[in-house]
Here is the input.
Amino acid sequence: MEFFYREMRRAHNILMDDTDPVGGQWNYDAENRKRLPSGITLPRAPRFKPDLITEEVMALVAARFPNNIGRAANFDWPVTRGQAEAALDDFLLHRLAQFGDWQDAMQAGAAFMFHSLISTSLNLGLLDPLDICRRAEAAYREGQAPLNAVEGFIRQILGWREFIRGIYWLKMPQYRHLNALAAHRNLPPFYWTAQTRMRCLSDAVATTIRHAYAHHIQRLMLTGNFALLAGIDPGQVDEWYLAVYADAYEWVEMPNTRGMALFADGGIVGSKPYAASGAYINKMSDYCGGCFYDVKDATGPRGCPFNALYWDFIARHAERFAGNARMAMPLMGMKKMAPAKLAALRSRAGDILEALDHGDLV
Here is the structure.
């Protein structure tokens, strides 16, 4: 994606100084991984009152699908070009400047933070992606937002979104059947109910149910990461993401799910699996502080499930990842681990996976 992104920047003359990238480098992602500071005031996101047509559809959904996931009564996304433009204007004015620093941060109960909230409008055609990029660049040129925020935002659209669209049309229909890691476990019930003792996943799924939305790190590093580590069937994960998110269309959902989140495509989208233990979640959020599980424990009965599942995942696929340079560090860490410790981690992971298989509360 990085090289594709650079070509797109050149082709559309976005954030360029003649033939060079503005600021002297193409990517400022390293500056966009900060934990949200305590006490920060989060901006209020714009919401839109349903019009008569939307109210009609909400009533129809409530009547025909009363037991389905989600709450139609909560619907307040833009449904017209004017509303979509208003949502974009609000982001550019009130949240873009802070978006870069904290785009990967998570906070319990904070669904929107500094995110743009335009994906629903963008994916159904109410907004023009190139126009969005040019308006974000103008905000930088006019001194309204720093380069790391603007570049990070533009990369998600001009780089990642267009790259994902290309992968879908290049690799379908075979892509929908890829399952490189041979993952076949059923999707746990808490993905539909939010009933889990893992505070991070409970909050992410509850947010999803309430808003038909969760931001990209919640999708990738919580719901996606858990499904990756636990070996959940990619087809079932596909179905879930497509069902629960208002911005999910197959062309954008499937490569993100099978490629980026689950590594089910074997490396077409990403060169390594986005696997992480509880340490990452603790670093980027406040979830672990109030959780039933102890993020600093890996093998005890209340040890964070992400910890044991992470090392079990590495051990299960060690042979497959042996030739992947980007997986050298975790593989080396596992090799240096005392056999008894690795055995305890894998035993704890086995208990967690058995509980999932029996539908027990995890």
Observations:
- The first strand starts at residue 16 and ends at 17.
- The mean pLDDT is 96.
